[in-house]
Amino acid sequence: MTTExxxxxxxxxxxxxxxxxxxxxxYGRIYPNHAGTHYAGHCPRCxxxxxxxxxxxxxxxxxxxxx
Length: 67
Description:
By secondary structure, this protein is an all-beta fold. The chain has no helices and 7 strands. It has strands at 3-6, 9-12, 17-21, 26-32, 38-42, 49-53, 63-66. The strands form 2 sheets. It has a 5-stranded mixed β-sheet with strand order 6-5-4-3-7, with no helix packed on it. Strands 1-2 form a two-stranded antiparallel ribbon.
């Protein structure tokens, strides 16, 4: 994780995946669940849900397309 500087001092940034939602042609971010087993979120327009498993043998990519 990286540290960002804010007016109130340093702040830890949260890990996320960038997702292009083809359903509505918009970008969004999804964040890990509390257990750290999946990234979970939804399309910011139509609320279609997405879930991406976190595990060994994965990828280092940070941007994906959801169809």
